[in-house]
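Input structure tokens:
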């Protein structure tokens, strides 16, 4: 199973984005720090782009990462919420990846819809 397929299988839409429960066998954890698996930053961005596409009703393709901050690790067994808000520029979106009361990451992406 590819990471994209796994994202699709774990996707639960919410009012502001989506929730994902990350099991230990999620492919993105494989090899990313054996013994201390952490969700890679690039996968957090990929998940947000997937959510943007789902909300738009068509696939979104990443064009640019405008800014990004990764503050806390996301580990196996965590449920994360990805909150998406439109940015002031066309086809740009702000995303926040939250796990419980912590913000794991926040970034702005430009996408092609």
């Amino acid at each position: 199973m590819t990471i994209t397929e796994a994202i699709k299988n774990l996707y639960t839409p919410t009012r502001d984005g989506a929730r994902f429960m990350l099991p230990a066998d999620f492919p993105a954890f494989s090899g990313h720090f054996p013994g201390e698996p952490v969700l890679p930053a690039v996968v957090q961005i990929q998940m947000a782009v997937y959510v943007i596409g789902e909300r738009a009703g068509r696939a979104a393709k990443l064009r640019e990462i405008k800014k990004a901050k990764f503050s806390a690790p996301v580990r196996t067994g965590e449920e994360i919420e990805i909150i998406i808000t439109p940015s002031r520029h066309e086809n740009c979106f702000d995303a926040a990846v939250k796990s419980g009361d912590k913000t794991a990451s926040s970034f702005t992406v430009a996408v092609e819809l």
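The mean pLDDT is 94. Helices lie at 3-10, 41-56.
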